[in-house]
Glycosyl transferase
Amino acid sequence: MPTIEEEVSPAPAEQLTPEPRTRRGLGSLWALLSYPVLAVVVMIQLWISPSGRVLASNDDDHGFFLFVLAHGERVVFHGDNPFFTDRMNVPDGVNLMANTSVLALTVPFAPITHFFGPGLSLVLLLTLGLAGTAAAWWWVFTRHLVRSRRAAWIGGLWCGFAPAMVSHANGHLNFVAQFVVPFIVWQVLRLREPGRIVRGGVTLGLLVVVQVFLNEEVLLFTAMALLVFVVAYACFNLAQARDVARRFLLGLGVAGVTALALLAYPLWWQFSGPQSYSGQPFEPGKFVTDLFAIGAYARQSLAGNGAIARTLSVSPTEDDSFWGVPMLVMLVVCGVMLWRNLAARAAMIAGFVLLIASLGPRLRVGGVDTGIPMPFALVQHVPIIDLVSVTRFAMVPTTLIGVLLALACDRVPALGPRRQVAFWLGMVAAVVPVLPKPLPVVDAPPLPPFVAQGIWREYVDQDETIVTVPLPEVTTGRTGMRWFALTGLDYPVPRGYFMGPANSSDRTGSWNAAPRPTADLLRIAGAYGRRPVISEADRSAAFEDLAYWRASVVVLTPDAPNRELMASILTELLGFAPKEVGGVQLWDLRGMLHPTG
């Protein structure tokens, strides 16, 4: 009875010429070096100035991950709670287990953050995430699935640098770092082997723990893909499924017990701890894959077109499919070549099911909601599934394309000479147009002396905050969030960009801190450039809010939109004019407020 390894093995071994060990070693070295080189090319513009530039397509998440990297440094060097911080969103704090805090990266890289700053840590981790994901898949391919180094390299290249991965490299560190996924997949499949119940289960459980501290959403996608794959494979081969079912399920049980034993306390923090929440601030079917996006090119691909991609995609960070028509043709070719392999066929089914899920509850075509119902409508409100952005389900078939490409490339020696030439020409036509371009960046405003030279320390005691205006929120106040992160969270701040409960009585997830009158007034005035009529009630609310935030000073950032208007509004609210200190306008509140809870 064939095993999965035997089914996905390439053409007969005699058709592959053995190579000397030295040549194989050099080939492996070249393959592993090519991935980080390409990753540096993708991130090169941020490497030029890690702390002075931000990713142009996603400066919000860029600032958030600077923050979590700085938090990781405080965990190691200051003994802060890894699952919670009181440095942001004062006085309520932020539940970091309920946010994408990537502790599996921020804590180990704390020394780099401490000595070189979170900017360098971020670009380094984004680079290593792309290269590491490619290399991890390459390792699994070469050790377990294919004999051809070329096939393994192509598969790894696609898995690490597919449009979805490059798109998420625009600040989504949690989605770029997928180097644990191939090992989880392989350990799950190995549970069917004799003698793997305990050893394999414990190993899998530990890998799951690591992935939880990288990205739980990717873990969910991986679990769903494996579920569909295992069910499909079992249907194709019932005899083998019956033979291995007992030890496979027992191994999963050991893995579950291992993972839960280590994750019980962190998961309690996530779902029941302070500032925990439930649900998302949007309907599960809001962000979906457009059907035309499957055959289009992402804006960061060599053949990409920004205008077309904007029509078909939620944002530059969510180009989760965008494979191009030539790749769709090659997938048909690969499907024909591999159809007799039950494992490859099961992988195709898993990819198709998750692709259909990514289309959401109603079919969208060319930017138009057709109203045609899709299967996802039946499960969109199922707990856990309702926590994800639906378009990201397309990341699963994207990765499985890499697996199918590796397997198909490994079968090429069995083809005739003309078919081999046709296959490789088709592969070039499919892969080259989707190769990535360097991600765009913009120069960030330089830190004013008030921040860079630590002048703020003269104005802020240990438990007091600096209120930067615009206040740090989702899509606004990026400068204040960046100052806060680049100083290593040395001073606390109110509000911020994070996920938390909508307010004290509503635990629905929100990207904004609980509403406060002054925050709303300043946000609307800054966004629309309209001067509000300031009443005594507004002045009273301002002092109440500032006391609630434990404010020591209010600072208007030099790049604030409608800066003169905002300075005038703050002066009218607070009743006195600011002074220029270290390149910023500052309202000194020391001795004026009585903190409230």
Summary: The CA atoms of residues 543 and 593 lie 7 Å apart. The chain has two domains: 28-57+117-434, 449-588. The two ends are 69 Å apart (CA to CA).
